[in-house]
Amino acid sequence: MRVYLRQCGSYFLYAGLFSLFINLLLLTVPLYSMQVFDRVLTSRSTQTLLVLTLLATGALLTQLALEIVRGRLLLAAGAKLERLLGPAVLEGTLRQALTSTGGADAAGLNDVAQLRGFLSGGTLTALFDAPWAPLYLAAIALVDPGLGGIAGGGALLLAALAYLNERLTRAPLHDIHRHARAAGNVADSAAQNAEVVQALGMLPALRRRWERASAEVLSAWLRAGRASATVGAFSRCARMLIQIAIMGASALLVIEQLTTSGVMLASALLLARALAPVETAIGGWKALVEARAAYGRLDALLAARPAAPATALPAPQGALWVDRLCYVARGVDRPLLQGVTFALEPGKALGVIGPSGCGKSTLARLIAGSWRPSGGQIRLDGAELGQWSRERLGRYVGYLPQDVQLFAGTVAENIARLDETDAEEVVAAARGAHAHEMILRLPQGYDTRLGPGGAGLSGGQRQRIGLARAVYGRPRLLVLDEPDASLDAEGEEALRATLRALRTAGTTAVVVSHRTTLLPELDALLLLKDGQPQLFGPRDEVLKRLRGGGATAPQVIRGGKP
User: What is the CATH code of the structural domain delimited by 2-303?
Assistant: First the structure.
């Protein structure tokens, strides 16, 4: 986070410099008042009054211009910070979603927006003005040390109240964020599974869960609000009592002819100006605490960002090597995958089979690079997947997950992976996935707009478009997780033809499937059970052993047709 804030440092530097001149110019009104009372009223000189008024007006107009510039500087700082942070936080949110069993939400991006709002709000402005409060206190002390002592004691009292406010609201504000996130997760889960909720009558149970989480949010909000309101009321009362004390002490000095009425008025105005930023900061302390919490969360999110590889590797040929692969999910005691070892030369196809829950999809996610292994290695052309930048590796990897999710946008944009659309490449990918004719039957063909998740398409249509996305750009490594799950007979034949063409072009494929229709297109089979390899070898050999029993040692699947 500090790196990003330093890039906005010039804005804060100039804002601080302008704050100095603004606060110097804010001495205008007290000085003007003192001169009017002590000089103009005694001399009855209209010329002096005119000159003083013109000077004061010029100073205040200059102050106005500086405050406008300062406000725009802080707005620009907030905008620049969001531009810098946004992409990194989005990347961190996606990374968190891949590594967390509970997934992730857009809280990070909300934190960025919260920081931006804080930078452009009045609380930060008050914090810029607060360091100059001693300037006004010193001016009062120069007039009379006793008045300066009263003013200084009042400032310390308000500072103590600000600290008390922070201590009382810190824990409730933390609880608000935590419980609000839990309530939001319940609502998001209900929205994402609306069909199941409706069909199974789960709404009352979900409502009860949401109400419990919302009740915790409300309770924490009330605790924070009560504490802040109480301290705020005390601070306002304290400020007025301090002003009364200053006015009373000044009046006593005037009565005893130790000072003038102009000095009395100027002291009161200087005190009000000295205490105003402190009171504003107390009133906006909730925003300050929330901004600080957002900063902490963003700092933790960005700290987990892995360093990008500095050396760009050449385009891979597709040689895949998996060595003693292991994966343990966070919060789970036993490994989901353990001891998987195999190798494939370019252009070979591996089928991963086994009962449900044996780790097939986990293996697919690891090979595709969606998840990072807990142990072991996955190498593509001899380089570990982590040695590639995700952007570059993604060009050479095709991945079709078990649950195909499309994005809001056109069919062409989805096939092109939301990148710049190359019409020829899009159509080539669709033809390669045997989805071209199906797409042409859509209302606007490739320009048909889809809703989030591919709303408006059937499961088979999403599967075909997802396969076209996977083969877009002619990948060197193709990972398919249950690619035939939602396909009819025509779709299955098209999938076989696609896989056959890709193998001929030299693409290495890893296919997870429960069906036997794809077996003729596979070179090798890997049988998993309870996350561990049971059988591995050439297709026909594994099928023979499945019928007769026994196991085989891991092998390298080399050239030759099955």
Answer: 1.20.1560.10
